Amino acid sequence: MQRNVLSYLNNIVTKKPDKTAFSDGERSLTFREVYRQSRGVGTCLHQQGVYKRPVAVFMKKSPLEIAAFFGAVTAGCFYVPLDVEMPSGRIQLILDNVRAPIVICDRDTADAARSFDLKGGRILLYEDIAQTEADDGVLDAIYRRAIDTDPIYIVFTSGSTGIPKGVAACHRSVIDYVEQLSEALGFDENTVFGNQSPLYFDACLKELYPTLKFGATTYLIPKGLFSMPAALVNYLNEHRINTICWVVSALTMVSALGAFDVAKPRYLRTVAFGSEVFPPKQLRLWRAALPQTAFTNLYGPTEGTGMCCFYRVERDFADGEVIPIGRPFPNREVLLLTPEGTLVKPGEEGEICIRGTALTLGYYNDPERTAQVFVQNPLNTAYPELIYKTGDIGRYDQNGDLIFVSRRDYQIKHMGHRIELGEIEVNAAMLPGVGLTACIYDGEKKKLVLYYVGELDRGELTARLKPRLPRYMFPNRIIRLEQMPLTPNGKINRNALKECYKNS
């Protein structure tokens, strides 16, 4: 029985040692190099007396950073990914939480790391420690002692209090996710991934570990290309990338700005998307440009180790239709629960809750917030069994597929009516000449504010949107942007929009 993610690497290095595993277009590592360097890092960490502790990895996004992750795991530790593009205040809060005894940097990030209070942690340069001669006896003993509930990483998500939450995942949940996702999307040794997400999000799991499992290849796409759609498509073609698992905003950036009129991704065979609702208009553009490509909608929270549901798109969706998030991967179950903790009746909406191996270990050094959402299954009073309460609202359609309705915090009360902000966004996104849309609510001034990117001028959008929405749902202000602010993971940055509105 597999109990350690490193079994993927240990196996593939004997079969495809000289194949490129990870590349950013400039620097590449073969599986042999990943193996050797990660074992060098692991040996150095052991020599530093670090075992079963968090190891912060504060490096530029590159294949070397990935090898550093695996090096921490090789030492029997768990990695905490950080990045210079993260706000400095957030980095310090993370360092305060994990108190990592070691911070692995590269030569470009070491000075920045020294500007933080490392809580007694020591800085080690990757370029030095990766050359450490591997102590195979020590590393093999660490590997044999490992069990599948040992943590593998901590990634931090936003907290409603402003304090980030560190989600700790274990080998068991990651292995289960990799196995189920790979089968659902058809990964194999010929898969060439185009990675979009930063490495400090769990979204990169879709590429990192299947690459080890199958001996595939992952290209880390330069961030700047996502603001140049035509150049991005050319990059996909240049590297013969055939599989992408991106947030919806990244896909919409390509289709909404006319990149397909210039070039099409010739090699794409698999497109998976998630984290946001895909406007049907944009999905139709993608399917029309790539009629032989398989499209899959993914859904899942970080606390459930990546994605937990999938839906294969096999038909066109009309404007106003909702693309289902489908059904759970095997070995996990979704429960739709009422506020009272009972299952919803057919056709009713309820909170999406997850049970099974996919659940992570909870929030690192934060038992109070862990206990708020990792709770006893209210349907089971016979023995301890945790479920995770996502805070997402869903329902089942007539085919038994799960439909994402909204986040609880996207539901607002305005003029005495319960309103879904997403409904306003969807109606605006249906209009020709409109690309990305985002609606926010100013609770103090009781104002609905719609932001959009597109060719349609504000007056015409206002005129066309009025027949689509009841009066109480119509935005109090409509603001056209040249570019929608995005989070580092490529999602729409709603907090930035709120700040923009406050300062306007």
Supply the key terms:
alpha/beta; nine-stranded mixed β-sheet; five-stranded antiparallel β-sheet; 31% helix
Description of the structure:
This protein has 504 residues and is α/β, with parallel strands linked by helices. Helix content is 31%, strand content 26%. It has 16 helices and 26 strands. It is globular, with a radius of gyration of 23 Å. The model has no long low-confidence stretch (mean pLDDT 92).
Short description:
By secondary structure, the protein is α/β, with parallel strands linked by helices.
Overall shape: globular
Individual helix count: 16
The computed structural class is alpha/beta
Low-confidence stretches: none
Compute the number of strand runs.
26
Strand content: 25-35%
What is the multimeric organization of the chains shown? Answer: single chain
Q: How would a crystallographer describe the biggest sheet?
A: 9 strands, mixed
